[in-house]
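S.,

Sequence below, as promised.
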Amino acid sequence: MNEIASLFLELKSQELFKEWNKHHAKAYLTHFFSAMSSGKEPTTSWEIGLYDPQSGKITVFVKLKEDFAIKPEDDVFKQETTTIEELDVEKARLSCNEALDIFKERKEEFFPKEVCGDGFVVLQTLDQKVLWNFTFITKTLKFVNLKINAQSAEVEGNQTIDLVLK
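The prediction came back faster than expected:
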C-alpha cells in the first residue's frame, strides 16, 4: 500500500470522518493537496478533498500530528461542464517524492529559463488518469505546471501561464 493510500485509510478510521460520512454517504475522494516551497519541499500537511455530488460541495480534511481537522465544506472551483473525477489512490504507483524527482529532472526541458518560487502539488484524476500535478510561480511572474502520470511516470502535460499581460 502506498503512502497516500495509507493516509486515506487512516482518515477513514477516524471518528471525525465517520461522523461526517454519515451525512455525506455519496461523497468520494477527489484529491490530495500540499503547498510546496521554492526548494520543492512540502510546507503543509496533506489536505484530503472529498466531493459530495448531492450538495456539489467539497470538504477538506487536514492531517495534523496525531489526527485530522476538517474545514467547512466549500464550492468547487470548476467549469460548468467539468466532471469532478474520483481519485483511486491505489492507482498512484508513483510516490510524491518520485514524481517530484521527475519534475526536478525535467524542469529544464520544459521551463529552461524559469526560476521556481513557491507552489503546490495535487494528486488528482484528470481525464481518467491519476496525475501528480505540480504548479510553481516563477520569479518572472508566471505559473509553470507539469502533470506526471502517477501510474506510468510519463509527463502528461506542461504549461506556462503569464500572470502579467504585456
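The mean pLDDT is 92.

Coffee later?
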